[in-house]
Structures are given as C-alpha cells and as structure tokens.
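Researcher: Good morning. I'm working through a list of sequences from a screen, and I'd like to move beyond sequence-only analysis. For each chain I'm collecting a predicted structure so we can compare shapes side by side. This is the next one on the list. No need for commentary yet; just the structure.
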Amino acid sequence: MNVLDGIKARNFLVIGRVGMDLSPEPAGVRTRDAVSMVTGMGGSSANIAAGLVKLGCKAALVTKVSDDAVGWYCLNQLDHYGVDKSHVKAITGEYRTSLAVYETRLEEHQSVIYRNNAADFQMDIADVEAVDFGSYGALITAGTVFAAEPSRSATFRAFELARAAGLPIIFDVDYRPYSWPSPEVAEEVLSRAGAIADVIVGNDEEFGFMAGGLDKGLDKARELARTSAAIVIYKMGPDGAVAFAGSEELRTGIYPAAAIKPTGAGDSFLAGLLAGVSEGRELKDAVLRGSACASIVVSRPGCAPAMPTTDELEAFLSTHPGPTKV
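Model: Good morning. Structure tokens for this chain:
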C-alpha cells in the first residue's frame, strides 16, 4: 500500500495521549479569577482522532489512561466522539491521565499541563504488538509519545509493525519542551522519528529545532521530502505553509479568523489535511482545508469540542474570505 492509498482508506490508527481539559468560563476569564470551569477532551492524539471522525473518517486510539474518574471521563469522551477505544487500557497505581488547564483568551494566555507520572507514557511494546495493524490504512502519532519510556520504544516498535503491514507513517513533530529530559535528547529522538515517517508535519520552529537552528528549518523540511518522506508540511503560523511532495513545492496562506485562543489549531490542521487527502483532493486543496479547520478551532472554545464537522467546514469555506496570498 503506498502513502496515498493508505490515507485514502480513511481508517487511521492514532498513537498518543488523551486527557481532560479544564477552561474557565465564560471565554476571556483568567484561570486565577475562575469561578467555574468547563471540561472537554484534550490531548493532541485524541484531538486528531476526534477531528478525523468528525470529518467522516474512522480512527482508533492506542494509549493508556489512569483507572480513576479522570481516566473514565476520557474513555466516555472517546465514545462520545466515535473514536475506537479498543486499544486504550486503564492502568492502576500512581500514574495519572494528563490534565490541562488553559484560558480561552489570547492576551497573556496561560496553559498549564499536568504530566507528572503520566499514564500515557506507560504504553509499552506489548500494547502495540497486540494491535492488528493490517486492519488500518495509516498510522498517526505526535511527538509527545517519544518523550519518555516505555512509550518511546513502544512507538518505534509501532513504526516497525506499521511498515511491515504496509501502512504509511504520519508524524506530527509537536515538540513540547516540558515533556522531555533535555533538548539534546528531543533533537535526536524526533529526528530519528522524522527520518522514518512518510508524512511529516511541523512548524518552522520544530523543523529548525531538528536541524540545529531556526534558519535551517526550511532546508531540513526540503531535505526530508527529497530523501525519505512523501509529503512534508512546513507551517509558518500567520505566514501560511509550504508543502513539499517530491519535487513539488506549494505555498499556501491562511484563512483569517477572529481567534479567541491559540490551542488546538495544529491538531485540527492535521485532521483537515488528512481528511482532504483521503477524499482524493489535490495536496494544495487538502492543505487549505487543514488551514480552514485550524481557523475554525481557534475561533471556538475547547479543542476536541471545537473540531469542525464536514458540514461546518464546507459552510466556513463557502462563506469565508479566501486564504491570504503568499
């Protein structure tokens, strides 16, 4: 199965965390002034999975959660969004499901993520070896899974099993410094993962980090597209993105939006991009649909709750001004 055929199967295996998000309400309230909070499902991999399902694809998550009220909440939320939780295991002991407290505001935005003794980092090789990779079309993961053991080794084993089963590997760099023991370890491990992946998505800072300097990031993305990856997406925030596919180099803008928060954009972008490719759309169109999804999410409260459905995405595209010129 080649990369595009795997994505067009519209059936994704997603590795990585699910968590609970807490946010002060109404929008604009600071955490320190909060009287009440609203809950939502979070965690980059779970957000991507939910976004894909909302856009008409299938997605299953592989991770671990704590066997407690927060873990049970996450399991219920996966059911709510239609994400297959067959490969999500509850773990006892002192391990805890990730908890994020973030503000629905842009000015002096605060996000606090609790990852001490994270349950998802306890995913091990046995967990991924129990999965029938041949039942899926493509594997997706975000960089956080590589930040600690045994999750790191388990995910590299999943890459091996995916490759053996003919699944394309989709890698969102998603570098979160607070999760890693050191920048040096992160650079080595993320670069190793990037060299294996068939589709790589990251922002300019993340590619620059892997290349050893922000000014080297674009060349790093171009090199990966030339040597190993079928598709590389180099995101530049408000300046749009550059998509590399073989010798092709496409530059796209963004859809301006009245943002109320910065969180969730990257997860929604990847879901929109992959859903677009899965429908047989040209790469430029798929990237723009990902950009539209990102704009929708930053203009709404929540992360998983803010991910658009196909009808909502089409309505946005039909009524919103076109993307910025680059």
